[in-house]
């Protein structure tokens, strides 16, 4: 089948069946992990809680993150409501888009069976197979947009339509608004295009101005917001990376940071080489048009990983997470599989496919074990084990005993997004807020105010930062409940105090 037929959507029946099979497999994979997450606990994790708080309004920026993911959550929740099910549905829908867009990208170079194998190999990356399912959100969307941008770019290389210039401008704009590490991928793509004959034909076409215009229109309001906020999100990223903490003469620490950041990248090529070293193609025989396009991804990988390395060296970061490389990692399977003759009739390729399936099942079982057994087997808990539903019900009963019958008259103030969102989700009629230094403005309303804190970590007495802001706070109790799926650990404690109405 010619590339033009592929781009026009004209496919053979076997390809249609292969696409349907890919959709079913990816859908079942995402549905399984989403269902497991909801079955384990109704408690929101950090990223979920952040979205629960921030998605109340549209904004050009949210605290320490760009706005794109929150916009998606806000749009969907305005239709089906805001709760943990909505947040999980959004996350796994985006994850489905990532895997399927990558599969379609593979179909640009291989047949459906081969593309399924290459797509399955993504599960050999710890970030994709475990971290995606554990707690990530923004990173999933930025990776999906990187994959989608790659797919559009391949279309653009084959048929230079103005529509594709428009689409790639939109995808890069929203990619930047999702997470700033999208720039690792984007700069890698630009540099790879500059040093590629096919890429230069795209970049130096006057229609690239359409892409630049669309991208600038999308990101410019956020840039204005950044300037107004004095680049708060950039400062947060630098603090999170511990910029400036590593001295250049501390070679050992520097190597440890680089090694811990790139170990997943080194593991995949090693395993790939063990399996397929016999099938590597001589460079002289790999000269098809598809091969030329795949060579572009080799340069994307090179520059996309070299740029973060330069960031580590220049900014002297004391921490650099592998998940920040997620927008680039998916290019590695494309590069490596482009160097082998993929023969799905040979046992070695079939075994490799089975390994990918086993990894998926093992990660599912691992998440199930952590969710259901971790507290009592290892004596540890994750945030999702916090029994917010139980302690919230106890708090409601205590407030009703004190004469606060109507929850609409109540404002809950917490000192973290995690606590505020989970209490607010389990007391849906109340207004909830996150503690701010200008908290006196919160007391100007004619309603009862209740402050809550994690008494398991902060103690049973009202914390000092609350005492300073709310000197009139009256303790109303410590509410306790066993951690979810735990019978042995000490119970979780939630502290609460009432701020008298300022009528």
What would your notes on this structure say?
- The protein has 503 residues and is α/β, with parallel strands linked by helices.
- It has two domains: 3-370, no CATH class; 383-499, Peroxisomal Thiolase, Chain A, domain 1 (3-Layer(aba) Sandwich), CATH 3.40.47.
- The chain is 62% helix and 6% strand.
- The chain has 23 helices and five strands.
- The chain has helices spanning 3-7, 13-40, 46-54, 68-80, 84-107, 112-120, 126-134, 138-158, 162-178, 182-194, 197-203, 208-228, 232-240, 251-276, 289-315, 326-329, 331-337, 347-372, 374-378, 388-401, 417-426, 455-458, 464-469; strands spanning 410-414, 431-434, 448-454, 474-481, 492-499.
- The chain has a five-stranded mixed sheet.
- α21 links the parallel β1 and β2.
- α2 (13-40) packs antiparallel against α5 (84-107), α2 runs parallel beside α18 and α5 (84-107) runs parallel beside α8 (138-158).
- The longest helix has 28 residues, at 13-40.
- The radius of gyration is 25 Å and the shape is globular.
- The relative contact order is 0.10.
- The model is unreliable at 1-13 (pLDDT under 50).
Features:
23 helices, 503 residues, single chain, Peroxisomal Thiolase, Chain A, domain 1, 2 domains, disordered N terminus
End-to-end gap: 76 Å
Q: Average pLDDT, to the nearest integer?
A: 87
- Give the tally of β-strands: 5
Summarize the biggest pleated sheet: 5 strands, mixed
The count of helical stretches stands at: 23
- Strand order, main sheet: write it out: 2-1-3-5-4
What ranges have pLDDT less than 50 throughout 5 or more consecutive residues? 1-13
Query: H/E order of the elements?
Result: HHHHHHHHHHHHHHHHHHHHEHEEHHEE
Tell me, what's the shape? globular
Structural class: alpha/beta
User: What is Rg?
Assistant: 25 Å
Please give the share of residues in helix: 55-70%
Relative strand content: 5-15%
Number of domain units:
2
């Amino acid at each position: 089948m010619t590339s033009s037929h592929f781009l026009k959507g004209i496919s053979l029946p076997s390809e249609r069946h292969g696409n349907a099979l890919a959709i079913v497999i990816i859908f079942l994979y995402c549905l399984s992990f989403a269902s497991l997450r909801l079955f384990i606990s109704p408690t929101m994790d950090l990223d979920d809680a952040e979205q629960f708080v921030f998605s109340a309004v549209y904004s050009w920026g949210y605290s320490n993150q760009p706005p794109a993911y929150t916009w998606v959550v806000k749009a969907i929740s305005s239709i089906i409501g805001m709760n943990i099910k909505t947040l999980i549905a959004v996350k796994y829908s985006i994850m489905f888009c990532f895997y399927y867009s990558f599969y379609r990208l593979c179909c640009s170079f291989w047949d459906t069976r081969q593309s399924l194998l290459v797509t399955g190999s993504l599960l050999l990356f710890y970030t994709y197979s475990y971290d995606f399912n554990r707690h990530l959100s923004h990173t999933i969307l930025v990776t999906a947009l990187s994959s989608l941008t790659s797919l559009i770019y391949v279309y653009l290389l084959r048929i230079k339509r103005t529509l594709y210039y428009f689409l790639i401008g939109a995808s890069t704009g929203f990619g930047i608004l999702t997470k700033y590490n999208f720039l690792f991928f984007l700069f890698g793509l630009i540099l790879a295009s500059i040093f590629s004959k096919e890429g230069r034909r795209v970049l130096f076409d006057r229609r690239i101005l359409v892409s630049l215009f669309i991208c600038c229109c999308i990101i410019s309001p956020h840039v204005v917001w950044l300037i107004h906020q004095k680049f708060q999100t950039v400062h947060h990223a630098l603090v999170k990376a511990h910029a400036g903490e590593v001295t250049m003469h501390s070679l050992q620490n520097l190597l440890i940071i680089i090694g811990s950041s790139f170990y997943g990248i080194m593991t995949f090529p090693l395993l790939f080489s063990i399996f397929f070293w016999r099938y590597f193609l001589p460079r002289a025989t790999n000269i098809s048009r598809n091969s030329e396009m795949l060579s572009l991804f080799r340069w994307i990988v090179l520059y996309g990983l070299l740029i973060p390395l330069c960031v580590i060296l220049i900014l002297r970061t004391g921490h650099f997470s592998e998940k920040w490389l997620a927008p680039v990692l998916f290019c590695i399977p494309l590069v490596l599989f482009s160097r082998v003759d993929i023969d799905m009739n040979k046992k070695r390729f079939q075994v490799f496919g089975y390994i990918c399936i086993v990894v998926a099942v093992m990660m599912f079982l691992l998440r199930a074990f952590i969710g259901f057994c971790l507290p009592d087997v290892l004596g540890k808990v994750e945030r999702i084990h916090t029994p917010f539903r139980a302690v919230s019900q106890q708090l409601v009963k205590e407030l009703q005993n004190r004469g606060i019958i109507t929850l609409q008259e109540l404002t809950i103030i917490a000192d973290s997004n995690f606590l505020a969102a989970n209490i607010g989700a389990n007391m849906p009629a109340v207004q909830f807020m996150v503690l701010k230094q200008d908290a006196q403005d919160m007391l100007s309303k004619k309603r009862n105010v209740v402050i809550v804190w994690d008494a398991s970590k902060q103690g049973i007495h009202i914390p000092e930062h609350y005492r300073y802001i709310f000197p009139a706070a009256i303790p109303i109790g410590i509410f306790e409940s066993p951690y979810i799926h735990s019978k042995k650990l000490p119970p979780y404690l939630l502290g609460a105090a009432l701020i008298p109405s300022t009528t």
